[in-house]
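This part of the workshop introduces the protein records we will be handling. A record pairs a protein's sequence with a compact description of its fold. Comparing a sequence with its tokens is the quickest way to learn the format. The record below serves as our worked example for the rest of this section:
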Amino acid sequence: MKEETDQIKRCTRCILPASLNQLSFDEDGICNHCRKYENDFKNWDLIKNRKKEEFEKILEKAKNLKRPYDVLVPLSGGKDSTYALYLCTKIYKLKTLAVTLDNGFLTQPAKDNIRNALDSCNADHIFYTINRRNASELFKTFTGRTGDFCNACMRSINYSIELAIKSFNIPLVIKGSGRRVQYVSQIKEVSSLNTSSYFANVIRGTDVESKFVYLSANKNKLEFQKIVGGICDIFGIRRTSLMRFIPQHIGMYDYLYLPFNEIVDILKREMKWSDASGSVEHLDCHLHDIPFYKDTLRIPDITKYTFHSSGLIRQGLMIREQALEKEEAELSKKDPPAELLNFLKENDIGYEDYVKAVTSSDKSKFEPRIQKIARNVYHRFRRY
């Protein structure tokens, strides 16, 4: 097995394999994703105080608008969203509304973490619940047409956020995300546009369109707002200048960054957070392993850990040798995850039909061309 692993051409810094279509290597064998990360974050120690000041000015602007809530935090019960809630309520003392989507696949450990976090702070909270049967029907449609249901889930989450923003005129959304920790967002083989127009295109003409067309309501307005925010980031225009008129969505880790192990220690102490089964990643979703298994069906020489381990290496939180050992052990495993088999059975989908959908579907045909261009421009020119 080790001989087989050694024969795979990989980035000499992370472990991404040459089987990725958009991967390239320089003369040192280092991939374009590692070089991009290095270019974006090599000077982080020099600018981190400035980024923190920018973050605090954004928060101050939200406070000064004197809305019913200063900020909204999407809360899944995972470590990142719980940390965002911790910062907003305990560190910066903001009037905070937390919003959680439960589409029937939210895990019990996540629900426990949400309850404990809310008991530990003074945020208000909304649970937006979609009927499990309806959610399964939507996921089945996305699986059949694109091979992937994650975008359907994300659109539901974003709708719950948009609904709360509109209801309470909230000027700011702080998400437990950021480009530094988004380890698949720029790998085109495994990511797609997460926009309401993409969602609308996928469900158009299907049996679920009448049930879920509302999730893509106001899509043109929402995507205009997103593009305006991206333009501001590229040209260095402060988000505070837009906040009075357009709600601002920011990723916490674009302004404040701590290694995840330090964050977990804070959450266990301050928010009664638990990693439940011992894993701090993706504990909030019953279907969490399916997207990573799906990628292994489409791309040779990867496992469910490849992208995450590569991201941890770039952050200095894992050594390459450790990641390779993990890859070697995982490459020998071929069985589909139990949650996938349960999902297929629940939705009367044959395994072979699922594999065919994953390997032959073309998600890109549902992506609006102008939005793909905007995404590529944003990732290319966004600077810190």
Notes: Residues 44-381 form one domain. The two ends are 42 Å apart (CA to CA). The first helix runs from residue 2 to 6.
